[in-house]
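dumping this here before i forget
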Amino acid sequence: MAMTGAINKENFSKGKEVFLNVAKDKRFQLGLTIIIFLLILISSSDIRTSNLDLLKDETTDDYIPTALDPYYFLRMTETILEEGGRPEEDIMRFPSSETSFHPEIWPGYTVWIYHGANLFGDYSIRYIAVIFPVIFFALTLIAFFAIIYILTKSKSTALISCALLAYIPSYLYRSMAGFYDHESNGTFFFLLTLIVFTFAIKFLSMSKDARKDLLKSVGYGLLVALFSALTMLNWRGIANFVFMVIPLAFFILYLVKSKKEKNLWSYLIFFFLFIFATPLFTHIMGYDYLSVFERSFLSTQGLINIFVLGFIAIDISVVNLLKKKQFSNIVKKYRVKEYRVIYSLIFLILLAIILFTLSGRNIFKIVYDIIRDLLQPFGQSRVGGTVAENRPANLDDWISQKGRILLWLFYIGMVIIGFEIARGLRESKNMIFFGLAWLLMISGILFNGSLPKSEWAYLFSLLIFAAVAGYVYLEDEFDISPELIVITSWMFFMLIGGSGAVRLFFVTTPLVCFISGYSFFKSLDYTKATKDKDFKIIFAIATLIILAILVFASFGFYVSSSSQAERTGPGANLQWQRSMQWVREETPEDSLFLHWWDYGYWVQTLGERTTIADGGHVQQAFQNHLIGRHVLTTPRPETALSYMKTHDVTHLLIDPTDLGKYGAYSKIGSGPEGVDRESRIPIIPVDERQTEEKANSTIKFYSGGSPIDKDIIYREDGKDIFIHEGFEVKNNRLHHGLGGVRIEYRNNNNTIKNAKAIFLNKGDLVELPLRYVYLNGDIIDFGRGINATLRILPSIEQDQRGTSVNRLGSVIYLSEKTTDSLFAQIYLMDDPHNRYPSLQVAHKEDDMTVESLKMQGLDVKDFIYYRGLRGPIKIWDVSYPDNIETHKMLLERDHDFGDGDNLEFVKE
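structure:
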């Protein structure tokens, strides 16, 4: 027995030794890495194609994209395929001006992929477009692995980060089948640019002889410029980050390396070529050189490139002056050598002030614009401000997009990066100062928007960090690797971008996944490096915890993304598909459609008809304003007819979701002050618990808080009742606003006896009569009351007995601001006062739920309330009375809001 035990122990030791030797073998590690990576790649790509069966147009049996914008790029791709190239003019968009196709190149190589794929099978161009983002997701994942491995030299970190990126829901939608837009391919080229740039600055940091390495400096400069240009040609949005990340990283590298005053000309040559060759490469592909240069390097965000180039040129000049004997006394007296960077900065700032003043630009305005862009990169224009994705993000948004656990690992990873930078300092006190300033900065950016006055804390944290970093730089020696510089610069601008706007969360996701994986990499590194047994145990436990969290998060992401992906169908649902089939088959080819801008690409691509407005906003803000003001919210039919006649509109289209968008287009359609049309249209459900039964009538209460959109003045019993506009909640109860409505129905014939609106006026309950009620196609005028209308809306109710229709189940409240709007009059109430006789309904396409209820034999009409408004897509034929005027100004795109108010719309 003893001998057997000894043999078993010996066999175990040999087996352990063999296992360890195999595990340490580089070929085994490489093979295992490839296998794991391929499993991640294949499984995540499979998730992204699990919705293919949903991406079919019922009317054509061909594939269609998911979101709005991809339909534009699909139409561009089909046009390139049909015509053999990109036409000079896009005749489907805003026909009153000459509009060109978007210059991004990737729809062109979608056609190449199409031709290549059809050598092996029979595929439609729409199928290739639908799977295009998945193809580039796979390429992006490969590039992502490469950049992480280059930056960390850790295959495990690269694998973990790739697993997170492959499965995290915030990266799913824009990289899955159907999202035929530039995000997947743009991110791929962005990562390639980072890879090339990392190799470039590693070379520059190790280069010792500028003359011998001149050719390589030129080569790297041109190569980085080429890939930067390719990034712009694929996605101009992410290219903005290229022109911020690269100059900041290059500036840090120069500051660190230039203290030794060696090989400075290589830096200048490289960066000069990067700036001036990037527009050159885009020019070769069809972009205008000057417009690219201005957009990339002279914009508020891109000025950092000119700043860095100017600083390097000035600093090299100062270095050369320091070597001249005649300046030796000045150098000693003013400590120029020690504070050379400060003198170079001062000279650069003075030179910039002079040049900007001579060119007519205000340096203080530029500084203001930079601060504004840091806080709100997409601005707060009236149009941009109505887009939900453009709003600044806060901590809750970060958590909802990335997950609470991953977000805190990301935060820990950022703290570790600051610690790694601080380790390059010699003085302990400077390490502490720098570390605290770094912690303050990343906290200020990440928590921006989560606390009162947090924007000021955000800016304050940036200023404090800049001051501390500058002090430490002058007083100490930095030893920071090029890889860490790239990580820092990438992290800084992605963190700012992600906090600046919700829509940038997609581009920040790869960085979040990387930094989260980086926390594991560094904790493992610390475990190996420490000599102290206790610390080694602590680091080992922390590493295992982080690894467990990352594996758990990846699995959770996998489950969530799988579930989400298989349910993601096209935004152009069956109702839209059938509507567009009618448009294709029943309207003349030269028809011109008017609608809110959201639907432009659907009408152009699926309906094959020209539109005035679309999501690319080629019509610009003023035309959006006119559509909102002169058409959808106008109380004057002549303004809508004048606008449409000026543009030769043949059809008007309104979608049921326009009710929910009323707040957006009424704000955009408001006058110079931005408030005269702004409102919302609430749907208020009945509260059956408050129903009152009387001898001959029944009173129903419809409860729901909503803002009062304008001051109400109503005279009753010889007294004026005044209710101020606004909305206020105190102690979770409505204190000021519309609290609901009350309708009294006669029991004998179910007609309406009266209707009242219930307001909370600074806590006081006030009931005012309503003049109008719309029910069953008829408008009821009580002859008195505030000029508002209740549109009775049936609701769907479901219980154990089945599905039923409550004909009095909800109401749409149309306030004095909204009741006379074109949207309310012709869409919600079928023109009850006959104000629009020249608009004739040509087609109505029922909502699928309404159609299903009709097929079940339920007596429902066009509108019901079931998880929101369910209504038809309505399309009107438009004709014009002879007395309607046209105006050239209504065709223009650059005017102040409200400029068209004083026009005469009807001939005398």
